[in-house]
Amino acid sequence: MTLPALVALGRTKLIANGRLTHARSFLRHPGHSQSSGISRTASLQPQLHAVTDKHVTRANLTPALMPGVNNPPPPITTAAAQQKMAQERREDAGDLRRLVNEAHPPRASDLAELQSLQKTRKDRDDTDTTASLSETLKSKSREAGPRVVVREPKHLYMPQSPRSRAAAEAEQTDLIKEMFHEMGDIGLKPVVVYHNLSVPELYEHALKYEPSTHIVASGALATLSGAKTGRSPKDKRVVREPDSEADIWWGTGSPNYEMDERTFILNRERAVDYLNTLDRLYVFDGYAGWDTQARFKIRVVCARPYHALFMHNMLIRPTEDELHDFGLPDFTIYNGGAFPANRYTSYMTSSTSIDVSLKHKEMVILGTQYAGEMKKGVFSLMNYVLPKMGILSLHSGCNEGKDGDVTLFFGLSGTGKTTLSADPQRPLIGDDEHGWSDRGVFNIEGGCYAKAIGLKQENEPYIFDAIKFGTILENVVFDEETRHVDYDVSAITENTRASYPIEHIENAKIPCVGGHPKNIIMLCCDAFGVLPPVAKLTKEQAMYYFVSGYTAKVAGTEQGVTEPEATFSACFGSAFLMWHPTKYASMLAEKVEKYGAHVWLINTGWTGGPYGVGYRFKLRHTRAIVNAIHSGELGAAEYETMPTFNLQVPKQVSGVPSEVLLPVNCWADTENYNKTLTHLASLFTKNFVKFQDGGGHVTPEEASAILASGPTAVVDASKAVLQAGGGQAGPDEEEAIRAGWGQAGADEEEEISFEPVYATRTAIRPAPTEEIPERIMPARVAKAMVHDMLETDYNPRLNLSTFINSYMEPEAEELMHAAAAINMADSAQYPSAAEMEKRCVQFLARLWHCPDSDFMGTGCVGSSEGCLLGGLAMKKRWQQARRAAGLPTDKANLVFSHVAQVCWTKFCVYFDVEPHYVDVSHDCLVLDPEKMREHIDENTIGVVCMMASTYTGQYEPVQEVDRVLQDIKQEKGWDIPIHVDAANAGKLSSVGVPAKTAARDCIANWGHGQQHSSLIAPLVQPDVVFDFRLKHVVSINVSGHKYGLVYCGCAFVVWRGHHYLPRDMVFTVDYLGKEERNLTLNFSRPGAQIVGQYYNFIRFGKEGLRRTYHNLFYIYKFLHRSIVETGHFEMLSTGDVPVLAFRLKPLEGAKQRNYNEYDVMMGLSEHHWMVPAYKMAPGASDIHLLRVCLRVGFDLKMAQLFVHNLQKVVEKLDRHTCAEVSSPGQTYEGEQEERGREFKQRAGPC
């Protein structure tokens, strides 16, 4: 077992340096070193020798007591002598125990008391702290706060041994007993508060109370942030209050969504009441701001040790004296994130709400446990209060040179801000949040919150080495045994994070303060490839690019991003701004001018073309540019003007090729460069429209100068957009706009400007049902309307009626989003996607042991299309053979059982084939090979075998069917092919996942029952045969969107050789300038599913699929056992696939249920589970059953919840419907049909 895993075991404690100690180490005498213990033992040697000598004398110096001596047999003694010797030995043993106790007297009566001696506690006067905490936790409706007990009170301590517990209980006063007896009123319940615990204590609490918390190999604490793995900016609310509403940036583009004071108080009470009901609370008091003249006292009240440790890292940690004098805080955060907001409260749009009140100096968090909300809540506060003090708040990194020269680094995610600010030659002041006062710059935080995804020591050594004891790792994945973290894995989220104190950075400057910045660097990652690697900015340009906050998303970095996409975030941190961006920009310009700072724009993105065409600037070139800035080289360089953006670009930089300094020199296509440059300029101009009024913080002249410093050569269309947005369009322009877009009525104009979605008039109109609406609807309103319609549907994860997959990895989803526009019909235009489809077909052919190298196959929209193609091929081959023999071809028939999927009946109807159904029976709920014989004749085009039945999930006996067809061929000469419909299990059964054999009391054993009794695969047990190893199997279809683990819309069909696929089914089409071969019934097909399937094949591999299916069968086994153990049900499924088919067990005696499977189905629907109930196929239609399909994403917790709900449903039905009936044979067919009609229509076995 690894050391991190051992920490959580036993009574081991973490001490301040991260080392371990254990209670048993205190068995040595306190106050004595090991050597002193030895000397004390040595001092007792004469006494011990005296006892020993006495014993030896009485034994007549028997050599048995002398090691190394060849001892003779002991002399024979009488019984009385033996008793006397035994008594003497007992006396001697008592002497020895007495002497040992004198050497090391026991200090505790039992282990529990011993453990209480292990820790010492300083005597503190907690009176002021307790009063302050009580005031913080006070409800607005009460005059006094709750009774607060700091840390764990002694009267709550109960020893673990019975003897010590009895003694402790006897000492309790009647008052204490009464106080802690059934205290349901939160006003009477004392609140146990753990105040400013040390890091080792928080580790211990986290390991004890949070199951998702673990110590990893580096010593860091790995934990999960819950369902939310990132911030929820749309759920952030700021209270509109008289004292601050004129200051706050409201309206278009603002991150500040308003709420009223009453709603804030409601949410505060909700959070405080929740926190006061908990068994323990954690409070951390710390500071924001290293400048002691701009320092704010922050108090965080939370329920999780993880949150307390996080803020311990992120705030500035007070000394013991500072903590004693802390008093009431300047700002309080109530983190009740484990408790949801009430969605029916005003202003709430979800169960998450992050609310800030500047009047009450409080922040309330509900419905999210993501710790970053607290950090950014403090930054939002500082973004408001610091500018009121004349201090500029900055979302930037900061370092300092050896001569005291300070550099600020602004930049959004992916621009290199963290990498470039971490310079071994320049101490780090901070990595994210700063203030700039008349005294210089200072860090707001006491720690760092770094992204951990893709972290490597060689790229970011300072961050990598900072991850040690005291660090929190959020949502990372680590090896279960070694506890080494794999930073490249994003199974939980891409937003993995590390939180650590700034002291963990080797070259951090403590205290984190510096002089006035000499250089300010604004970073961007231009994926359009048109901005220069470096440019010097004027004061007005600095304000323009600061307010713009530009970078670009690269295709593939986020869902739905398929080409470079401009991103603008005002002041490089729009989500946290409280004032209008121009307030911060004007302060920046004032300080730049006052202290003579130089401002630079550095592009770390692409050149020579956009992303995918050009190449990214080399990191060494960017570092050379930064070094040239720090050395003063660029301050004295010669510059030339870059057109359109009017940027001053240096002609030469040491260590950087001069040809890359102007991007136009790197583009092969100058015309395309100019178009791209103009396009990006128009995006800048369009974005700046919402800032051009100045927000009341700059004069009209200053606003005009700022706007003029941006791009100038903009196409006419962009000017029109700017003018229309700014209200400056003339009559001609307005008429042109109306001609293109239509005259907006008053309602539409209101909706475009009115912010809340549900305040628009569209929100009270019915959704269009019959005709396309005439008018444009705002995108956010249309989204809300569609989203609200979908919310009434079942949660796909709780829909247990279908085999369709409902979970894919985020990486697969990103690839599928990127491929959403690919049409597989255009194989010449999308050759890579076509190649992926070809490879998938080849993978399946090999998996199914295809004996021929000339196999044929294709992707399909669904398994039904694969079935239709397989059936058509069999019919056409039969027709060709009949025509060649001069026989009629008008009476084709197809043989399959009644449990076959409905698409086979549709095939017969669509393509004029007579279905020959084989009835099932109580003895065999699938295709019976012997009964099948009766339905086969010379007109049979083929036999369909199901892998597996949609009713019960059982395999049909393909190998037995093949044997029977061989007999028929020998007897009558009819060569009947088999098509295997493996839609439900083709991949599953071929990969070979072991599963426990389930009882098959009502299923016939066909002699080769092994293949039916368990899920066995060719790769694991090759004796299970259902595929091309059987002579009569000519084609197989499978669903990728079932156990291929792809979203709906993916299937494949494979033929064992080209001669089994008639040539006239393959069409050659002259399409888009190239001949394309087409086999499918659908011409256009989505390419995203093919991409997703290929990803799954290469991502999981055979091993990954085995593990995935093994987990499904583990849950299957749990559900199978749990459902049977309820005593209400009996199983019909056999474990072939992870599908549970079960029915109500008949009651014994005269008592009979007055309910049926349909009532159970409806009862489960009240718990949001969608489980179908239906009749068995003809031949066994008196059997009614329920079916549960297990899919990836259905975990053990959901299984336990399902069993719990199922038990509750049956218990409720038993209470209300069970009765004594006069006739044991009485049924309720009519009632059950009516009860289940709606659900049968929605969730039948197909």
Helix-strand layout with pairing:
Layout: H1 3-7, E1 13-14, E2 20-21, H2 34-43, H3 45-58, H4 79-103, H5 111-116, H6 127-136, E3 148-150, H7 162-171, H8 174-179, E4 191-195, H9 199-209, E5 214-215, E6 221-223, E7 236-239, E8 257-259, H10 261-276, E9 281-288, E10 296-302, H11 305-314, H12 320-324, E11 331-336, E12 353-357, E13 362-366, H13 372-388, E14 392-395, E15 397-400, E16 406-410, H14 417-421, E17 428-430, E18 433-437, E19 440-443, E20 447-451, H15 461-466, E21 472-474, E22 477-478, E23 485-486, E24 497-501, E25 513-514, E26 517-524, E27 534-537, H16 539-548, E28 550-553, E29 565-568, H17 581-595, E30 598-603, E31 606-607, E32 615-616, H18 619-631, E33 639-642, E34 647-650, H19 670-687, H20 700-708, H21 716-726, H22 731-741, H23 746-753, H24 779-791, H25 810-818, H26 831-847, E35 856-860, H27 863-884, E36 893-897, H28 902-910, E37 914-918, H29 929-933, E38 940-946, H30 958-972, E39 978-981, H31 986-991, H32 1010-1013, E40 1033-1039, E41 1051-1055, E42 1067-1071, E43 1074-1078, H33 1088-1125, E44 1129-1131, E45 1139-1144, E46 1151-1152, H34 1157-1165, ...
